[in-house]
Write a structure and sequence with these properties.
Chain A has 263 residues and is α+β, with helices and mostly antiparallel strands. Chain A is built from 10 helices and 9 strands. Chain B starts with 13 loop residues before the first helix and ends with a helix. Classes of the chains: A alpha+beta (263), B mainly alpha (68).
Amino acid sequence: MSSERVLIHAYGVLERRTGLPEWPPGIAGAPIHTVEVEPLVAITSVLPYEEYEPAAWERHADDAAWLGSIATAHHRVLQSAVSAGDVVPFRLPSLYGGVEALRDAVNDQASNIAQAMERISDRVEWAVKVYRTDQSAATDKESEAARTGRDYLVARSREQQSRAEADTFVHDRARACYDRISEASVEAVRNTPQDPVLSGRREPMVLNAAFLVDRAVQSDFRGLVDEIAKGSASDGLLVEASGPWPAYNFASLPHADTAVDPA
Amino acid sequence: MSVSTTTASSDVALIDLLDRVIGGGVVVSGDIVIGIADVDLIYLGLRLVLAPAHEVEDSVGLTRRRST
């Protein structure tokens, strides 16, 4: 037995009755081990301490490739878990000094995890993003073509007004998409739209939403999004869905256990 | 426009992964503690690091539009 110091990384937990998938390689190619923490099963890998201890995270604070490879492996494992059954994903980083420390941490959070498990039971996450494709290049040309200063000002003011109207229209349409899709889901959340610099897309994102969807109605859900996508194209909206994701957006609990409204 | 359904990790944008694996999921702090504040800093730092990869083409367009 090697005396090298190690860390346990936990990807998430499953219920014991859940079937196990064929696991892909974990972080840094480490194999996946399951650890029973009654009544759950934790999905884990053993990692070398020096490379993943807190100081290592600080060292790699601006290293997108390093964190990207961890995030990718973490997701890949959870993605294969969600294909077999429900999984409560753990937020990165999720590191423990040993199996007993992992058991203690999971037991400490047992009620939160149970709540999350109940919330996502037989459900998966779908993401829907809406991009704006109607960027008004035409009006730019129009104002450049205006000859006199007065023409320019009139054209410019018209352009600003029509832009404001177009903005309102697009955001109303995006909101309508969200509302309609929400009705086909159990829960819905709107996240901040990604900046074009981060999304890598030229089109501005106007909706970045996640939906918790019953596994049984996924094809209906996709059908609805597809229909909305087709109907929205002429409004200058590009609707894209991806999924099924592990329920990352619906496993964290801060807003789930707030006081119940008397109404 | 058809609905895309890829969540295979090789096809997912890094920002989408980070938003989920660092921004979401249940928090189960172990004994190897990396404070949430530290993680948030790493996350914000990474968002900045990720930006330049896509910045060049877009910033040209934006600059031109702003200067008219």
